[in-house]
Amino acid sequence: MKSMKRLKPRRITNKVMSRLLKSNDLIVLLGARQVGKTSIMYLLIDNLLQVEKVESNRVFYFDLEDMNLLDVVNRGVEEFIAFLAAKGADLKERCFVFLDEIQYMENPSNFLKIIADHHKEISLVVSGSSSFSIKTKFKDSLAGRKRVFEIYPLDFGEFLEFKDRKDLAGFWDTGNWEKARFFEGDFLRYFEEYVIFGGLPRVSLLPTREDNVEYLKDVVNSYIKKDIKDLFRIDNPYAFNKAIKLLALQAGNSLNFTNLTTMCGISRRTLERYLFILESTFFIRLINPFYSNKIKEVTKMPKLYFMDTGIRNIIVGDLNSLEGRRDSGSLVENSVFLMLLTGKGPLDEIYYWRTKAGAEMDFVLKGEGERWRGYEVKYRPFEEAKITRSTRSYINEYSPDLTCICTKNFYQDKINMDLMGLSGLNDQSKLIFLPVFFLSNRPYPSVPWLTN
What we know:
The protein is an alpha/beta fold. Helix content is 41%, strand content 15%. The strands form 3 sheets. It has a 5-stranded parallel beta sheet with strand order 2-3-4-1-5, with helices on both faces.
């Protein structure tokens, strides 16, 4: 097991720990490889041992990539209980058992159900790298008995903390622009590094660019060889690899299925299967268009985003700085999507909006209670608050509670809507200009409900 002293804290750990202590539900950590699931397990174990003072003979961790351990759990619950006893477990008291990479088990659903029904003394925390495999193997018998936490790459605040810039992370967390503005250059430098190399925890800790390149290459190769080869049958690896490359080039754009199938030499059904596999293994995410008028607005063609921009960039073979890149706008937009995804509430949904005439809002977030927010990414310097015709069309059409223009370095949170040509809106409708590196689900001074 890794040295606990070397582990950086993750923000989701407190939520998982609270659930673990308050209930006996099965806890499932889902996420891509290298996203930090194992480290979060170690952090939970450390908290149990050091903070909650749980005895060491009541806390156990097992990595199911170890074939010997996998063989033990596949032999059934009674064999596993005997194994725990042989390891010195005090089964008269509540024990905490962590099973890493549960998707390798033959029948995890039955195994976990028996423990839930007949071994209340055992609290389980399990992890998996494939939502399809987990959903397929976790039958309905576990409905209502599990709590799933999806683990994402680092958000930008965590990235700053991993870089040992807790001062900047503090400004980011609290939305204190009055202080943060003095460190604009530092924020931009770290944000561009975050966009280029992504948010996998280890990336933020490696010392050199060359180390990051080699590590990201290894992550992609391991994903193809392990998650894909072990969990799915790909009859045409060449077409699959070509599809991944083409999808990486289209990150931040709507998918044209006809063009993709023609370029890959595959059927639409095969392409849809590839997309399903990539989503199920937390490699990409598709979002659908939001519409209320089928005649005027786009109703089909999902937009695609990668779950880590560093992985996307290593696939296209470009880890150069944002300046001068043709894809800098879509890259920043991808990072904004990840910020919204990691910060959204459990009932929030993310869409995009586009009219057939070409007006567009990059992201539309539908929140609980029919609250709507729009996010337009304009990664360039602003001298003053200005909006595009597209943004004006969206606001006038839907009167959203909030519209956020994500700029490179311009901040303004008190906007005269009439001067912007926005009239007849509801009293709660707000417009804010925000540096993209400062975007987070936090309460802003003029938008107190923005936090979930």
